[in-house]
Design goal:
By secondary structure, the protein is an alpha/beta fold. The chain is built from 10 helices and 5 strands; from the N terminus they run H-H-H-E-H-H-E-H-E-H-H-E-H-E-H. It has a 5-stranded parallel beta sheet with strand order 2-1-3-4-5, with helices on both faces. Helix 6 runs parallel beside helix 8. The longest helix is centred in the middle third of the chain and has 18 residues.
Length: 242
C-alpha cells in the first residue's frame, strides 16, 4: 500500500478544466436570463439591424365622392374629372392628393353608406366634393330622403374632421320628370349648402349638357372634351378655398 494512503491522507486531485469554466459561464447565462444590457457584438444581427424608417405624414387629400360623372364613365382613368383636377393641382404646386371616390349608378344613400371609409387617418381629408343626386332623380326617389342624405354626409364629415372644406354640386334634372319636380329638385342643393355651411359648385354641366359634341353617344355622360369643361367649372369654385 502506498505510504500516503497508509497515513490516512487523500491525494490532491487536479480540478478538471470544465469545472473552472462553470462559474463564468453560469454568470453569463444568468446575465442574459435577467436581461442585462450588453453592447452588441460587432457583426451580430443586433449590431447590423437597420434604423427605424422615418414616418412621413400623409398628403392632404381632396376626395371626390360621386357617381358616374366622378368615376369617369366611358373615359380612361386619366380623362376622369378627379385626374383632371389633380393635373391642375400639380400645375399650381399645391400639396393635395386627389382621390376618385366615384361609383357609377350611386345614389346619395350609397354615398352616405361609404363615406366613413374616407375618414381614415392615412388620407388626411382636407376637402370633400359631394357630387351625388342624379341617380336619385332617375330612380324617382323621394327628394326628402335625398336632402336628408346630403345633410348627413356633410354633418358626418364635419364631426370627424371639423376643419374639412366641403363642396356640394348643384344639380338639375331632366325636363321629362315634370317642371314641378325639376324645380323642387334643383332647390335642394343651394338650400343644403347654405344651411350646412358647404360651398355650392354651380351646375357643373352647364356648358356641356345638351351639346352633342361634348357628350358620349348616350347623351348623358360628357366625353373627354366635355369633362375638361366640367373640370374648368369645378376648379374655378374650389381653387380659392385650397
Amino acid at each position: 500500500m502506498n505510504a500516503v494512503f497508509a497515513r490516512g491522507r487523500r491525494p490532491r486531485m487536479r480540478q478538471p478544466r470544465w469545472r473552472a469554466l462553470v462559474g463564468p459561464c453560469l454568470a453569463l447565462g444568468l446575465g442574459f436570463a435577467l436581461g442585462c444590457d450588453a453592447a452588441p457584438v460587432p457583426g451580430s444581427s443586433a449590431a447590423n439591424a437597420p434604423a427605424p424608417a422615418p414616418t412621413t405624414a400623409p398628403a392632404p387629400t381632396l376626395v371626390f365622392l360621386g357617381d358616374s360623372l366622378t368615376a369617369g364613365f366611358g373615359l380612361s382613368e386619366s380623362e376622369a374629372l378627379p385626374a383632371l383636377i389633380q393635373r391642375r393641382v400639380d400645375n399650381e404646386h399645391l400639396p393635395y392628393h386627389v382621390v376618385n371616390a366615384g361609383r357609377s349608378g350611386d345614389t346619395t344613400a350609397g354615398g352616405l353608406a361609404r363615406i366613413d371609409w374616407y375618414f381614415k387617418d392615412s388620407l388626411d381629408l382636407r376637402a370633400l366634393v359631394i357630387g351625388l343626386g342624379s341617380n336619385d332623380a332617375m330612380r324617382g326617389l323621394p327628394l326628402e330622403t335625398m336632402e336628408a342624405n346630403l345633410r348627413q354626409m356633410i354633418r358626418r364629415a364635419r364631426e370627424r374632421t371639423p376643419e374639412v372644406k366641403i363642396f356640394l354640386w348643384e344639380l338639375k334634372t331632366f325636363p321629362n320628370l315634370g317642371q314641378e319636380y325639376a324645380g323642387a329638385y334643383a332647390a335642394v342643393f343651394p338650400r343644403v349648402a347654405q344651411s350646412e355651411g358647404a360651398i355650392l359648385i354651380p351646375f357643373p354641366l352647364e356648358a356641356v349638357a345638351a351639346h352633342p359634341e361634348l357628350n358620349q353617344s348616350d347623351g348623358i355622360h360628357p366625353n373627354a372634351e366635355g369633362t375638361e369643361r366640367v373640370a374648368d367649372r369645378v376648379w374655378a369654385t374650389i381653387r380659392p378655398s385650397l
